[in-house]
Design brief:
Blueprint lengths: L1 E5 L4 H12 L3 E6 L2 H10 L2 E4 L5 H9 L3 E4 L9 H19 L5 E7 L24 H6 L7 E7 L1 E3 L7 H12 L2 E4 L5 E6 H14 L4 E4 L3 E5 H12 L3 E4 L4 H5 L15 H7 L8 H5 L8
Parallel strand pairs: 1-2, 1-4, 2-3, 4-5, 5-6, 6-10, 7-9, 8-12
Antiparallel strand pairs: 9-11
Length: about 300
C-alpha cells in the first residue's frame, strides 16, 4: 500500500514509517519543516508538506493514498483541551476525505484514561466526557460511513533514549524539583510498550484490522509507579519521595491529572486478533540503562 502517515517524524511515527517501509509499503509522510522533510527523505519516504491545522493538506494526503495512519498530536498538556480540538478537526478532515472508500484509517488514542483503576481491554470503550483527547470516538465514527476506521491505544511507550511517554515529563519534573515523586504509595500501575512493538501493531492493523476495531499496543500490563520513580531518581541523582494526592498539582503541573492513577491495560485481544506478540525489552530494564534519559 501507499500510506499517508501524520506525525511521521515523531517518536512513534518515525518507527511506524520504518516498519511500513521494511514491510514493502510506500509512505507519504506529513512534514511541517524542512528538517522533517529531510528526515523523511533520508528514511526512504515521500514528503507531503503541511501540519495538523492545514486541513486541505490533510485531506489531500488521505485522498492520494491507500490508507492513513494518524500518529500526530501536539503534546503540550498545558493546552490539552485546545490540542484535543485541533486533533478532532484534523481527524474529521481526513475522515471526510475517506468517506465511502473503505480505505483503512487508523487514529491514535491512549489506554490510560479509558477506565482508571481497572485492567482496560480492547472491548471497553471510552465514555468519559472530560477526557480532552477525543481521537478514538471521532475516528471510529467513520466506520459507519464507509471507512475501515480503527483506533490504536498507546500506553507509556519507551525504546529510544530520552523518550518514554509521560515518564519523560516526570524526569523533567524531578530535575526541576530536586526530588522524584509519586502520589500516594506508588502502587498504581502504568501499562507500557517498546516503540518497535508498537510500530508492528500499526502495520498489522493497517493490513488486516477490522472496521471499528480497537487495538492495544501494550507489551506490559502494568508497571508499578514506585519502580519507575526509583529509576527516575537514580537517573537524575535525586531522592524518591511520596507526596499526597492533593499536592500533585504543585509538583506535576499539567500532568497532575495522571498522578496517582492506576492505568493498567491488557493486549490479549489484540494479540489474538492481529497475531501480534510483543518481544522487545521491558520498561524498567530499558529506561534503567545508563544514560537513557541523557540520550
Amino acid at each position: 500500500m501507499r500510506v499517508f502517515v501524520t506525525g511521521a517524524t515523531g517518536f512513534i511515527g518515525s518507527a511506524v514509517v520504518d516498519e511500513l517501509l521494511g514491510a514493502g509499503h510506500q509512505v507519504l509522510g506529513l512534514a511541517r519543516s524542512d528538517t522533517g522533510a529531510a528526515a523523511l527523505t533520508a528514511a526512504g519516504a515521500n514528503v507531503h508538506r503541511g501540519d495538523l491545522q492545514d486541513l486541505d493538506s490533510l485531506k489531500d494526503g488521505a485522498r492520494e493514498t491507500d490508507g492513513t495512519i494518524h500518529c500526530a498530536f501536539i503534546h503540550d498538556f498545558a493546552k490539552f483541551a485546545e490540542n484535543g480540538q485541533i486533533d478532532k478537526r484534523a481527524i474529521e478532515a481526513m475522515g471526510d476525505a475517506l468517506e465511502g472508500t473503505n480505505k483503512p484509517f487508523i487514529v491514535t488514542s491512549g489506554t490510560g484514561l479509558v477506565a482508571p483503576g481497572t485492567v482496560v481491554t480492547e472491548d471497553m470503550r471510552s465514555t468519559n466526557p472530560h477526557v480532552p483527547r477525543v481521537s478514538e470516538q471521532v475516528g471510529l465514527a467513520y466506520a459507519s460511513r464507509g471507512v475501515r476506521a480503527m483506533a490504536i491505544r498507546l500506553p507509556q511507550v519507551h525504546g529510544k533514549k530520552g523518550k518514554a511517554g509521560l515518564i519523560s515529563y516526570l524526569v523533567e519534573a524531578a530535575r526541576k524539583k530536586g526530588v522524584a515523586a509519586y502520589a500516594g504509595d506508588g502502587s498504581e500501575r502504568w501499562a507500557a510498550a517498546h516503540v518497535l512493538d508498537v510500530a508492528h501493531v500499526y502495520k498489522l492493523a493497517l493490513e488486516k484490522g477490522m472496521a471499528d476495531g480497537v487495538y492495544h499496543a501494550v507489551g506490559e500490563e502494568g508497571v508499578p509507579m514506585s519502580q519507575t520513580t526509583e529509576i527516575i531518581a537514580h537517573a537524575v541523582g535525586v531522592p524518591v519521595v511520596s507526596i499526597k494526592k492533593e499536592e500533585a498539582g504543585e509538583y506535576f503541573g499539567p500532568l497532575a491529572m495522571f498522578a496517582g492513577l492506576d492505568m493498567p491495560a491488557s493486549s490479549a485481544l489484540t494479540q489474538q486478533r492481529l497475531g501480534w506478540t510483543p518481544k522487545e525489552i521491558g520498561l524498567i530494564a530499558d529506561i534503567g540503562q545508563p544514560g537513557y534519559f541523557t540520550g
